Amino acid sequence: MTGETTVCTAVRIHGRGAQRRALRALLDGLPSRGGRLLLTGEPGLGRTTLLHWAARSFRAGPVLHLGPGADPDPGAGVTARQLLDTLRTAAGAAPTLVCVDDAHLWDAPARTALARAVEHLGTVGRVGLLLSAASDRAVAPEFTHLPVVRLDPLAPSRAAALLDDMTDGAAAPAVREQLLAEADGNPALLAALVRRLSPAELRGHRPLPGPLADAAALVEAAGGAPAVPSGHARDLLLTVAAAVRATDGPDVDAALVRDALRRLRPAPRPDAGSQPLPEQLAPAGDRLRFHSPLVRRTVYATATPDARRAVHRALADALRSGNLRLPELLHSSWSLSGPAPAPGQADRLAQAAADGSTPATHRLRATAYARAAELTADGASRAERYTAAAEQALLAGCPQLARPLLAAARDGAVPAVVRGRAELVRGLVELRDGPVGDAHQSLLLAASLLAADAPADAASAALAAADAAWAAGDLPACLATLGPTAPPRAMTAAAAMAHGAHGPGAGERRGTPDPHGRPHTRTAVSSTASHASASVASAVRDHRIGMRALLEGRLDRAGAPLGQVVERGRTEDRPEVLLRSAAAALLLGDVDAARGAGARALAAARQLGSDALEPQALEYLAYAELRAGRHPQARAHAEEGLRTALRAGQRNTAAHHRAVLALAASIEEEPDVVARHVAAALATARRHGLAQAVTLAQWAAARADLGRGRPFDAADRLGLLVLPGPGRGHFAVWRLAVPCFVEAAVLAGRHEDAREVLADFAEWAAFGADPQAAAQLARCHALLAPPERTDDLYRRALARHDEAGGDFERARTALLYGKWLRRRRRPREARGRLGAALAGFEGCGAGVWAAQARDELRALGAAPQPGGDGAPTRLSRLTPQQLRIARHVAEGATNREVALTLAVSTRTVDYHLRKVFAALGVRSRLELARVIGQAEQDQEARRAAAHQEKTGAQP
């Protein structure tokens, strides 16, 4: 230990919002009823911190802390009756919170007494029981029936914020990234690592000790070394811990472990008979895993070097007869003695990692490249291998691992092409999870360094640099990268929804290895065949040419190259090509092609295990659905995209998904959801300079205001985005918000402001890339026209909507037309238009706009049902996506079948189904089927009644 750094202890709780809400619900309910919760998580995740937070937050009565050594002493044979009497006495006349920390440390009789007392909490009255138990072992059977609140490792952004609190922001950037990577989201381990460093080491003035997470730091975070009952158990734990290092998951093949143990101990230990599995391990079919990753790392770190090498040697021998070449080589390399370079071993590892025919995930390849770099003596080769490891880590969706690998790759003697590859990875990491201005500079530098030896990669880097400038809203920088000529104003909006957080430069190629395992130039997305690389390079070239022509206003020159990119997506199966196809299709206004290419890109990314590309594919799908006016589908894709982006450490991508979610929710009756997504999107977008996400989020907030009948607020928000001035929104997005602004401005009496922006919007509509723009323009003219022209303009707008499709925009036009007709005292015509608007809004789940249509119909003397011809009142509690899932489940579909039908993940179906059960108050699929069936019968009855009223038919 060299630590002199004092860790700030008065830090706020980071990333535990969901857990605190669950605890708060328990505390808030205690004045009227009892309750109980079990808080679980591996050591070091903050169970005790949350328990203390709950105790400090409870103000309605006393707090009783129970535990080994407390009074009463559970270890002294206390019975359930005694414990219950203690709770009653402590409670008295006031609500009481009982906190039991580390309940897993209680002995079995004490746990039994506690469990029986919990069973009688209903008779105790207003007593809340809050237990915490470590998840580094199976949950004690006495507690399995309790409601559980789980703690997971902190997300990278939350861990980074915690580190900044601990160190007052004093950590050097490279040191910061290494600390975050080693801590892996565990707050206690992060604190232990910081305490280990001296101030000079923390600031980067002295080299870091190695390994950074040593045995002492891990034992401190884990609360002590794992208890091992026997020598055989020690061998078994160490073998599993060592085997996991050469896998990409938390578990290993039990047969491999048994084989390695036989090789490790040809003569079995006397204690190796029929012993039970150590409590730290969990069986999962024919595989074994640790309950806690931290305990697994502690087991490995506390073993002697000789014991670790012997286990790795046994695992390598056990793997030699199989086809798992990369794990075998890794274990063989870890069995070497001492830190001396091993060139032969390093070359074999690098060659296997670069071989596309070797079955391995991107993360495992990153591990192999990094180990090869450690064994490499030559500085240039070592830097190249660290760079290759960073590329693979980025592909695996682990930017927190890529950053320290890039730091390790720094060497002044490396060739320019290797430095260029490193800068390209660095730029792509920042593009997805950092300030996009920094990403732009790194990508420009990468393009310069790669130009001589890797021109195709240089072109990819330049295209990614243009996208960074695009995301930042820096039009001059974008034009400087793509072409010298400035575009007409209308043309820049053509790609407004075609690129998200990392559009043109996000998915690139990777070259094939040379015979010595040294990979040729490659960028962040892998494809091993040379013909595939050529195809991707062609897609990059065509995309750039098309984009440049588009921004220069030469649509005749943009269509052909962008069309080629779209066509490649119809026959290709590589995600990078498919993503470009989706982007190009959006540029050309071909929404169906964009949806098809985006869906295939998502499937391809999942098949290849490319976690970095999943969020982007979902982003394109969400944008395509928004462009088509299918807001519920956009919301479903964005919800899944948000989860994958957060898992992959892509905060910028997550901000774009939140902006899409805000836009989708802005048409529904969920103002709190809109506000939450807008705030979250803006928090990241403003910090990282994402002008495009800022504009989309602010547009969503304004559209929600407009839908709720607040035109003055909407006009104020939108005026900042669309009117000329320094605060105008993103150069390619603000025109998309013009129709909303015109509507809000007219309702707010700001007719001149509305007319001021129509000329720009007319240019955009004439461009032809957005099929809805012509109809929206006619609607805007109708809002501003004199009465004698209004009727014709609304009819023209509706005719254009019929040509373009899009239920939501057509319903908005019908609503405005119906309002105008009602105020012109033409009630019969108004009722027809308003009825059509209501049906359109209900069909696309636009609840807040449907409410406007109902209000207008009531003003005409009509009395529409709250659910219209859609779901009855009870089902109107559900969002459109929840309603679709509920109907499929009611028809007997499994969660997997529903997921396949709706093109979402089973996790998404599980999440929405839980919401459905809670909203409808049902407890089983059978009850749900009954509710849906009754709703369908009511719907048919309403339709029959409506038909009878319309036709005068007799029943």
Short characterization:
With 955 residues, this protein is mainly α.
List the helices and strands and how they pair.
Elements: H1 17-29, E1 35-41, H2 47-57, E2 63-66, H3 80-91, E3 96-100, H4 108-119, H5 121-124, E4 127-134, E5 148-150, H6 156-167, H7 173-183, H8 187-196, H9 199-202, H10 215-222, H11 231-244, E6 251-253, H12 254-264, E7 281-284, E8 287-290, H13 293-302, H14 305-319, H15 325-334, H16 343-354, H17 362-374, H18 379-395, H19 399-408, H20 416-433, H21 436-450, H22 455-472, H23 475-482, H24 530-551, H25 555-571, H26 575-587, H27 591-608, H28 614-627, H29 631-647, H30 651-665, H31 671-688, H32 691-707, H33 711-722, H34 738-747, H35 751-767, H36 773-784, H37 787-804, H38 807-823, H39 827-843, H40 847-859, H41 880-890, H42 895-902, H43 906-920, H44 925-951
Parallel strand pairs: 1-4, 1-5, 2-3, 3-4
Antiparallel strand pairs: 6-8, 7-8
Helix pairs in contact: 3-4, 6-8, 7-8, 7-19, 8-10, 10-13, 11-12, 11-13, 11-14, 12-14, 14-15, 15-16, 15-17, 16-17, 17-18, 18-19, 18-20, 19-20, 20-21, 20-22, 21-22, 22-23, 22-24, 24-25, 24-26, 25-26, 26-27, 26-28, 27-28, 28-29, 28-30, 29-30, 30-31, 30-32, 31-32, 32-33, 33-34, 34-35, 34-36, 35-36, ...
